[in-house]
């Protein structure tokens, strides 16, 4: 049996304390044991090592070459165990651990990001990943345990019985345009006035696209004919620049773009009639037990919905 096979953390701590104090009785006191017990443990360790770990002299106990090696590694091991104990405690309280969130765009800006900031203030050791996707791949990923929870909508092809659903809220659709757009700054713009302009819109299966097209139909209007299909916010912003294109976005995203633009970026068109998207949900997999870390982040998100 190897020398290290029966070593315990208490044994390692005793060796370190002997090296630090140079006195067996002081090391025994700090280890909360009697001197005879400490002497017996040291003798057993040295017996298994087959070599003395300390030289005994009038000036106290000094580590031998073998003793110096043991002390060095003992300190490293004890520090590692202390760190492990700390990390386990953080995980148990939800202050550490990995959290994987999937979300559609609107709540990513309005709820997820503020929640992450709040969690970071009191739990800086959390490792949080956020992926922004349409609802269908989000729910598919949740079923495959790629996410702890998602914020989105249940696709028609998904079995809602497999999930816990917490209703959130409806999303307002905002139409963005360049500052030079002919309708920018106008109050109470009607949808009919927008038909002749180019649009940059999410794919047909997206909730925002569906809401925009439904708003036109409800008013007896055709849907816009000049449409570029793209779910990329980057593509939408690039196409707005220097053109009369229109890009529908969730209101949270539109507000963020306006703030980031510093008075130079896109502006919202003031619509006469509000366009809203069906409510999204906080969706959890019934077969997946959330970690304390995931519960910590989820609680912060729910407060902001």
Concise account of the structure shown:
This protein is α/β, with parallel strands linked by helices and 305 residues long. The chain folds into 3 domains: 9-92, Winged helix-like DNA-binding domain superfamily/Winged helix DNA-binding domain (Arc Repressor Mutant, subunit A, Orthogonal Bundle), CATH 1.10.10; 94-169 and 280-303, Periplasmic binding protein-like II (D-Maltodextrin-Binding Protein, domain 2); 171-277, D-Maltodextrin-Binding Protein, domain 2 (3-Layer(aba) Sandwich).
Explain what this protein looks like in three dimensions:
- This protein is α/β, with parallel strands linked by helices.
- The protein folds into three domains: about 10-90, Winged helix-like DNA-binding domain superfamily/Winged helix DNA-binding domain (Arc Repressor Mutant, subunit A, Orthogonal Bundle); about 95-170 and about 280-305, 3-Layer(aba) Sandwich (D-Maltodextrin-Binding Protein, domain 2), CATH 3.40.190.10; about 170-275, 3-Layer(aba) Sandwich (D-Maltodextrin-Binding Protein, domain 2), CATH 3.40.190.290.
- It is built from ten helices and 13 strands.
- It has helices spanning about 10-20, 25-30, 35-50, 65-95, 105-120, 135-145, 205-220, 235-240, 250-260, 290-305, and strands at about 55, 60-65, 95-105, 125-130, 150, 165, 170-175, 200, 225-230, 245-250, 265-270, 275, 280-285.
- Strands 4-3-5-13-6 form a five-stranded mixed beta sheet, with helices on both faces.
- Helix 7 links the parallel strand 8 and strand 9.
- Helix 1 (about 10-20) packs across helix 4 and helix 2 crosses helix 3 (about 35-50).
- The longest helix is centred in the N-terminal third of the chain and has 29 residues, at about 65-95.
- The model has no long low-confidence stretch (mean pLDDT about 90).
């Amino acid at each position: 049996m190897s020398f290290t096979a029966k070593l315990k953390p208490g044994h390692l701590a005793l060796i370190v304390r002997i090296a630090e104090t140079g006195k067996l009785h002081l090391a025994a006191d700090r280890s909360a044991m009697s001197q005879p017990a400490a002497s017996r443990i040291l003798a057993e360790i040295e017996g298994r090592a087959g070599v003395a770990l300390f030289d005994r002299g009038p000036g106290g106990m000094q580590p031998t070459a073998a003793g110096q090696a043991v002390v060095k590694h003992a300190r490293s091991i004890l520090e590692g165990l202390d760190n492990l104990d700390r990390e386990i405690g953080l995980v148990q309280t939800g202050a550490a651990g990995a959290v994987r969130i999937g979300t559609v765009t609107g709540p990513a800006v309005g709820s997820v990001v503020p929640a992450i900031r709040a969690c970071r203030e009191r739990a800086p050791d959390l490792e949080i990943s956020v992926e922004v996707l349409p609802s269908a791949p989000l729910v598919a990923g949740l079923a495959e345990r790629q996410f702890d929870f998602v914020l989105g909508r249940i696709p028609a092809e998904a079995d809602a019985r497999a999930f816990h659903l917490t209703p959130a809220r409806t999303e307002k659709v905002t139409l963005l345009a360049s500052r030079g757009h002919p309708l920018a700054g106008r109050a109470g713009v009607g949808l009919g006035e927008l038909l002749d302009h180019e649009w940059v819109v999410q794919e047909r299966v997206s909730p925002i696209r569906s809401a925009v097209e439904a708003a036109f139909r409800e008013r007896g209007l055709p849907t816009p004919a000049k449409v570029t299909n793209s779910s990329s916010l980057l593509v939408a912003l690039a196409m707005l620049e220097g053109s009369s294109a229109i890009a529908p976005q969730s209101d949270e995203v539109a507000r963020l773009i306006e703030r980031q633009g510093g008075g130079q970026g896109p502006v919202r068109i003031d619509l006469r009639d509000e366009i809203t998207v069906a409510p999204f949900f906080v969706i959890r997999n019934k077969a997946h037990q959330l970690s304390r870390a995931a519960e910590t982040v989820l609680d912060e998100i729910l407060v902001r919905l």
